[in-house]
User: Fold these one by one.
Assistant:
Number 1:
Amino acid sequence: MPKKKAIPPLSETVGNFFGRERLDPENGILIALSWGSDSVGLLLACVERFWTKNLRAAHFDHGLRGEESDRDREFCRDLCERLGVEFSVGTGDVTGEARIRKTGIEDSARALRYDFLFQTARSLGMRYVLTGHTADDQAETVLSHFVRGSKLAGLSGIPKIDSRGLLRPLLSVRKSEIVAFLASKSQPYRTDSSNADLSFSRNRIRALLIPEIEAMNPGFSKTMGRFAEYARELDARLENEVSEYLDAQEPPRSFDVVEFAELSEFFRKEVLSRLFVRMNGNGIGLSEGMVSEMLRFCSMRYGGKSKTFGALRLERWKWRIRYDKIPKA
């Protein structure tokens, strides 16, 4: 019977991540600490690997769970005090932010949390913000995006590094491995009571869908991580090809109608979809019907002179299609 592959210690996983990505921990690490097993495990692993020099932790109190939120915050404070890690706390009006942004509570909470983390990192001189996202989170994210009908950008899931200096060194690690690591340290953690609420689609995916899939493929979560990496590489390749096509056009911010019509339908859709995302800041509201309408506008038979798609404006100009962003009022 073949031996099971040994799982490296969590601190080694974190250290290998920094080495592989050629990142210098001396530039400062801020841990996003949320009291759950993932972030607590990440904090302990970083303390083991890097000690507490150039290491801080920060907790954002969403204020949505009353006394439970208070206990979460104090748990994080006590843990950092015991470990000798400097600790920062932030809070915000998540419900009010949701009204302003016209988004759901979860999206608004995420936006406020990351704003706080990056502001704290800057004020402390920390270069990197680390979160405890795992292979399980990656699988849930990709599946939820797939269910919503996302394209490649959505199926790319959670990036391990982004341009802001946000790092996710545990994306290759299963949550069960982190729980086992904490048990070996006799380190408690807290759980979110709302995780049991199946009215949230993410919770249904986690509690009902993924266990069924893993019954057929026990390695599903890590398989999804590899798929997300593939989707991200393919998405980046397509983005480069679209940019090269648009950058080669004369005059700028336009393209020739006849040449455009000779491209494959797939690539024409990619050009228009990515223009929509660039001008609108995201792909919210973009549908197959809208892409088809953009294609019709860019055909030589379309009679209209201009048409808007969110903040993207397309305008017929001689034998060219000009595009620009509609300024905010």
Number 2:
Amino acid sequence: MRVCIVTPAPRRSHYGNRVTALRWARLLRELGHRVEIAQRFETQRCDLLIALHARRSADSIERFRQKFPGRPIVLVLTGTDLYRDLPKSAVAQRALAAADRLVVLQPMALEALPRWARGRARVVFQSAVKPPKTPAPNLRWFDVCVLAHLRPVKDPLRTALAARLLPPSSRIRVIHLGAGMDPGLERRAKREMRRNRRYRWLGDRPRWKALRILACSRLLALTSVMEGGANAISEAIVCGVPVIASRIPGTEGILGSDYPGYFEAKNTRALAELLHRAEKDQAFYGQLRERCLSLAPLFDPARERSSLGELFADLFSESHTGGTTQLSSRRVS
């Protein structure tokens, strides 16, 4: 089958939607499909469209529906879709209505969907692979990794601000990787490095290099105010790195509501206390590590590939009659 994956993230970028698109393309090719990735659907020949981000891919969804009215659309919902756009954006709502199947990246996302759409939604956990030959952790520092582009929704400097509150005896150092997408936040990150000896912003790095830095860190700090299901969590877990995270639905849906490593979003002092506890309290650190390791099977690439295969089988096993969509498994000639 010919599959077109549409993502608003540009080529060679390391944005989450692009990472997901590339990984899905690889998994779908392993399942025997022919896959193309594009930022927009124009006139590509394909049997099925996978669109990432409802509002930003809405034009592509509409063009595909007009060109191929009987072929299916899968819409992958992001954090900004679920927790910002869908409640108030007519464009996002039309994209939701046009899709034959919806994919969310963690179970709690289902609760953010309108009731009429939940029956078409499927949960697919994002897989990750530990990089080979990972260096040992730095013994001088207790490194805390932040994988977050400089965007307000990521609250990316919160860990740096929390590190300022740590006692002088703390060995915590914050290693931050992410593109400077917001000029104001980029200026703040550079200024923070000059003022805060515990903070290093390394900018955007190739994915393999970012994963190696993550894998030799002691913690991942995820400080977002909105996430659909952060791939950074699955990457940390398969690398054996415990997670400290803001308590938001997109993270609770992966780690569980009773996970012990949460702080309230934007609460700098609470984050500082959690960081210090993880550094000094070996029993607490071990608890975080064990909880994360117990979740590792969720992020096996074979599981994600199987979930995609089941999604396609579900799509093409039924035929909608009397509606706007007629599903067909015939190939494009």
